[in-house]
């Protein structure tokens, strides 16, 4: 068991999970305490000792399924159901969705994978390819729709939209489970064919905090957005704490009053509390196509922090600049606000390619006077000017006037100053320029902000 | 040292007996916490029963629950121990003539020590459950205070020496994940992520906690609440809000929830105006999502 565990831990580390030696030992101790014949218990013991972050659980699940897959339990190509055709599978799918039993779903996954996945010995295609192939033949969505309709007509006239919605969701959940079963079945077969280490390597995905903003898939972006709220709160707390000293001056009156309890001896000196000055934040974000994903993310972040400060003003630009603060202040729903920013903000003045110089100058002309010594200015963008005039004097002036001026760039720092990027022209005027490609880096920026 | 629980099933069934319905994963972690003598770090969205888990385990074992509520600014003197200055001062003044060495020895004895929750849990002679609630509210620096307690179950007091526990307390730390906890802390704990229960379990929770609710209504409640949680709301309904809603429906004598009734009572489940608007649209909408 122990060598297997060591290999498993090694694979977790390669996937990016920070598993320490202590945790490895804990896992080994834990395994000695639980019955090993129960797969769920076994998995639970490993999860409790090795994974300390809920966002890492999906990665853990995948590695676990690969490493401890039920390979070799049966010969995949033996047995009955050799003569499945599309009709029997479609029938089985309907039955499985309508009844939703685990066994039925598993059986369906097994048979569908055998018939449709196109797995062959020594093949090189990835799991998602086979997954897609299997599902393409099953017509999952169509079947769900048909089942909902049929249930509706059976119920007659009293079938409410709410009932229909609930019914549809139940079926979709079963469909989701079927997808997972198909994945598990594919994994099992791939492991049997190629070996666990190979499959694990092929399935390695970045952890949520390492996902690149500029190349994130839709699912990944959704996951990032969920991680945003806590991050924004941390940002707010650290910014505020930075300017708060632990104690103010001695409060003489309070100290004397306090000392009466101890016979006039001032045992506990009292200090005045300083009211932390709430920072004003100006966020100036590029929302052009090249950094659109980063922009969406940063706008969500802007919104999330705007509830934490007394005053947050947000500005977006492409080649023109517009203030979007009101979109966020009147709107609780971040998606709606972002949609309004995308559709209503007047940010395209000339050609629709980002022009940092023009946008910054517009910012300076229209709002520069309002940036006070208490303001922290964050500029978000890749500093690619499309060969327009950078007008970096604006950054110099901003740097003088604002308390802090930071630049967050979603590009790898190796690409800065290449081509039309003028990062260092702007950067020398900033208190700091940070590469912000993923959540981890954004978090580190937050950390530095506090130091 | 004897173990508290014979098996994982015993934990799960025992918790069910004190009306805390849980799954095998949670029961497994509690069981391991006892076997490995390690604290449990419980994370998850608000209102999924993190604090209640500790309370229920205490109830199950019939032991005392010592609770440390964390907040920003919590320090040693509130979490671990504090010397009772005033009493020390009185002691010094009461016997001005006495030998200083005696006095010093005297005033730094246990009589002058004020136990705070952590020290209290360590000093307790009978087994206790220690609940450190909302650990994410304290600063990173304060977290370090806990490390000695959590890994060695002891507290070092410079003037007095080290206080070691005679019985290992079962420790639960809860966190709403508003901040990343330090690696050092996480390493010392078992990790449990408590998510919203699935429909079947929520249905059983409603059935066991709400009087007069029918099985049909409980099932319906479970499905509607799941539907709402799928909506990407600011604050999805918690289990306790589900229970409140179930009680309301029972009071209103509703047996089958239709869209209108659901929308009318949404304010019990959801606390943000924008959430309610979104949910209203989803529940009474055409249903073709």
Can you walk through the features of this model?
- The complex is a heterodimer of chains A (451) and B (289).
- Chain A has helices at residues 2-14, 21-33, 39-50, 57-67, 86-99, 102-116, 127-138, 140-155, 161-194, 196-203, 218-242, 252-259, 292-306, 325-329, 334-344, 356-367, 393-401, 423-427, 439-450, and strands spanning 280-286, 311-317, 321-323, 375-380, 404-409, 432-435.
- With 451 residues, chain A is of the alpha/beta class.
- Chain A has a 6-stranded mixed beta sheet.
- The mean pLDDT of chain A is 80.
- The longest helix of chain B is centred in the C-terminal third of the chain and has 15 residues, at 215-229.
- In chain B, strand 6 (154-157) and strand 7 (161-164) form a beta hairpin.
- The chains are: A alpha/beta (451), B alpha/beta (289).
- At the A-B interface, helix 2, helix 3, helix 9 and helix 11 of A face helix 2, helix 5, helix 9, strand 9 and helix 11 of B.
Topology:
The complex is a heterodimer of chains A (451) and B (289).
Chain A: H1 2-14, H2 21-33, H3 39-50, H4 57-67, H5 86-99, H6 102-116, H7 127-138, H8 140-155, H9 161-194, H10 196-203, H11 218-242, H12 252-259, E1 280-286, H13 292-306, E2 311-317, E3 321-323, H14 325-329, H15 334-344, H16 356-367, E4 375-380, H17 393-401, E5 404-409, H18 423-427, E6 432-435, H19 439-450
Parallel strand pairs in A: 1-2, 1-4, 4-5, 5-6
Antiparallel strand pairs in A: 2-3
Helix pairs in contact in A: 2-3, 4-10, 5-6, 5-8, 6-7, 6-9, 7-9, 8-9, 9-10, 11-13, 11-19
Chain B: H1 8-17, H2 24-36, E1 40-43, H3 50-61, E2 64-69, H4 76-79, E3 81-83, H5 85-94, H6 100-107, E4 113-115, H7 117-123, E5 128-133, H8 140-152, E6 154-157, E7 161-164, E8 170-175, H9 183-188, E9 190-193, H10 199-209, H11 215-229, H12 239-251, H13 259-264, H14 266-269, H15 273-284
Parallel strand pairs in B: 1-8, 1-9, 2-5, 5-8
Antiparallel strand pairs in B: 3-4, 6-7
């Amino acid at each position: 068991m122990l060598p297997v565990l060591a290999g498993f831990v090694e694979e977790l580390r390669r996937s990016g999970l920070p598993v320490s030696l202590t945790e490895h030992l804990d896992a080994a101790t834990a395994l000695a305490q639980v019955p090993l014949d129960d797969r769920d218990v076994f998995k639970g013991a490993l999860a409790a000792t090795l994974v300390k972050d809920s966002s890492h659980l999906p990665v853990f699940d995948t590695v676990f399924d690969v490493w401890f897959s039920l390979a070799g339990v049966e010969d995949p190509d033996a047995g009955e159901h050799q003569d499945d055709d599309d009709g029997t599978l479609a029938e089985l799918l309907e039955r499985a969705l309508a009844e939703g039993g685990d066994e039925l779903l598993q059986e369906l996954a097994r048979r569908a994978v055998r018939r449709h996945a196109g797995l062959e010995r020594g093949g090189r295609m990835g799991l998602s390819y086979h997954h897609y192939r299997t599902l393409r033949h099953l017509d999952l969505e169509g079947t769900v729709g048909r089942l909902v309709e049929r249930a509706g007509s059976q119920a007659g006239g009293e079938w409410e939209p709410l009932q229909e919605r609930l019914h549809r969701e139940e079926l979709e959940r079963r469909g989701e489970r079927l997808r997972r079963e198909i994945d598990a079945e594919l994994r099992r077969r791939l492991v049997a064919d190629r070996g666990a280490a190979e499959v694990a390597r092929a399935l390695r995905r970045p952890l949520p905090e390492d996902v690149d903003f500029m190349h994130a898939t839709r699912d990944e972006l959704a996951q990032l957005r969920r991680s945003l709220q806590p991050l924004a709160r941390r940002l707010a707390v650290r910014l505020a704490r930075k300017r708060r000293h632990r104690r103010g001056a001695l409060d003489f009156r309070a100290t004397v009053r306090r000392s009466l309890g101890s016979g006039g001896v001032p045992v506990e000196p009292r200090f005045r509390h300083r009211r932390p000055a709430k920072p004003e934040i100006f966020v100036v974000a590029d929302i052009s196509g090249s950094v659109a994903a980063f922009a969406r993310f940063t706008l969500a972040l802007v919104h999330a922090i705007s509830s934490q400060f007394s005053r947050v003003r947000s500005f977006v630009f492409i080649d023109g600049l517009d203030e979007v603060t009101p979109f966020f202040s009147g709107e609780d729903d971040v998606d709606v606000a972002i949609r309004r920013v995308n559709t209503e903000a007047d940010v395209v003045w000339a050609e629709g390619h980002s022009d940092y110089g023009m946008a910054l100058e517009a910012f300076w002309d229209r709002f520069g006077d309002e940036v006070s010594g208490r303001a922290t200015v964050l500029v978000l963008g890749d500093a690619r000017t499309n060969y327009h005039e950078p007008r970096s004097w604006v950054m110099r002036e901003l740097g003088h006037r604002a308390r802090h001026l930071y630049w967050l760039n979603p590009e790898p720092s190796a690409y800065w100053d290449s081509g039309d990027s003028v990062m260092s022209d702007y950067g020398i005027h900033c208190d700091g320029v940070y590469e912000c490609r993923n959540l981890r880096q954004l978090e580190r920026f937050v950390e530095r902000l506090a130091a | 040292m004897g173990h508290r629980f014979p098996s994982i099933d015993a934990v799960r069934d025992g918790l069910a007996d004190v009306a805390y319905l849980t799954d095998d994963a949670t029961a497994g972690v509690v069981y391991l916490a006892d076997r490995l003598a390690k604290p449990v770090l419980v994370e998850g969205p608000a209102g999924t029963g993190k604090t209640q888990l500790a309370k229920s385990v205490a109830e199950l074992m019939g032991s005392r629950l010592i609770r440390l509520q964390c907040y920003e600014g919590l320090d040693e003197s509130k979490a671990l121990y504090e010397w009772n200055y005033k009493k020390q001062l009185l002691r010094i003044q009461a016997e001005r003539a006495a030998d200083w060495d005696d006095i010093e020895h005297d005033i730094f004895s246990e009589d002058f020590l004020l136990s705070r929750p952590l020290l209290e849990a360590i000093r307790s002679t009978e087994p206790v459950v220690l609940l450190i609630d909302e650990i994410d509210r304290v600063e990173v620096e304060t977290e370090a205070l806990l490390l000695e307690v959590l890994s060695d179950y002891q507290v070092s007091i410079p003037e007095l020496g080290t206080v070691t526990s005679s019985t290992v307390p079962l420790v639960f730390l809860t966190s709403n994940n508003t901040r990343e906890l330090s690696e050092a802390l996480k390493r010392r704990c078992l990790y449990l992520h408590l998510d919203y229960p699935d429909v079947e379990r929520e249905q059983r929770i409603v059935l066991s906690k709400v009087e007069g609710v029918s099985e049909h209504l409980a099932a319906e409640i479970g499905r509607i609440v799941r539907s709402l949680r799928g909506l990407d709301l600011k604050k999805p309904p918690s289990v306790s809000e589900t229970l409140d809603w179930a009680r309301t429906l029972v009071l209103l004598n509703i047996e089958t929830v239709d869209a209108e009734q659901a929308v009318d009572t949404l304010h019990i489940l959801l606390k943000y105006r924008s959430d309610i608007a979104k949910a209203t649209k989803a529940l009474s909408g055409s249903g073709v999502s």
